[in-house]
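Reopening this one. Same input as before:
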Amino acid sequence: MSEHSPVSNLTTEQCWELLHAQEFGRLAFHLLDEVHIVPLNYAVDADRRLVFRTAEGSKLLGLTINDDVAFEIDEFGDEEAHSVVVRGRARQLERHELDALDQLPLRPWVDTAKFNVIAIDVDEINGRRFELTRPWTHLRPPHDHV
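Same output, byte for byte:
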């Protein structure tokens, strides 16, 4: 008799479905001897790459020096949570590659100029589903909507 586990692995297709459904995640990248994690909005293109815009700065510098990155999304509700982690290589897209991205919802969420478009070519993708038991939630005060 097998014991039920509250944690299960997602299939590759389930991971991609979650990535398509989300717009916000966290990028981990190297900059010199440090690992940085930054939030960003992204889209998935037709080639199953994660793409995002960025301004000049430490993120672009770090990706130029070392293209090895990780990217993570997660979501949770009252009864379950999902997490997807991608590992891959980031590179700045050239001008001739940008036309194919025009139909993607790839606009900055913050009103700043972000002219550099980065694509993450995915080497590895994995995800997990968690059945949640959060017994302390009954201790929270009720939400008052005024």
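So the earlier flakiness isn't reproducible anymore. For the record, The first strand starts at residue 7 and ends at 9.
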